[in-house]
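Entry 12.
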Amino acid sequence: MAGQVTRRRAAAQVFVDDVAHPALDDDVSHHLARVLRLRPGEVVVAADGRGHWVPCRYDGRRALEPAGEVVAERAPAPRLTVAFAPVKGERPEWVVQKLTELEIDCIVVLSTARAVVRWEGARADAALGRLRRVAVEAAAQSRRVWVPEIRGVLTLDALEPSGLALAEPGGGPLGAAVTTVAVGPEGGWTSDELAGDGARQIVGLGPNVLRAETAAIAAGVLLGAQRAGTVCLGAG
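Predicted 3D structure (tokens):
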């Protein structure tokens, strides 16, 4: 708890390759000096995105001086995943930003039968790279020390079946055994996708039909709240 307080009260958080010898690149240095306008001596947390972090003093230019011991925090358990089919425009970036703030551990971009937007080849590589940058920025802003994994583009069959549920209007409650929620495209799932090789678990995210991006965030909220113990979503 003390470590979390230290991180939240710091003037900023940045990600570096080596927390024992934190070095700032040009973009991060510019952000601290010109955007946040930090003053020399202010506390900045340097993290590696893999659970390690250290409080540092900012020198006002390009250097961080460690001001404490390196802290190692375990990854939250159980590991939570939200998978979604990409939609038009900048909404996939918004989804990744919000799921990162909600402490989802793995975010998967899906290939589905009725998807209007399809990421393939070089387009997929560029889009996934952009999403990974968004995740890093959102993790720093929300003071996460574990950066979520961004995977894709995958089919439903490539997801681990244990703990998997598909979001569908009219589905059952999201029980404690669910650790992965897959959200379909704007056109919905096909009957084959809903069934899979057997009877896939179907969960509902509310009484109304949600936009694809809204459903992904709703899934993240429910999964995160269940893991944190702030709500009890049942034992199933």
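Annotation: The CA atoms of residues 175 and 200 lie 14 Å apart. Residues 81-228 form a domain with the Alpha/beta knot fold (CATH 3.40.1280.10).
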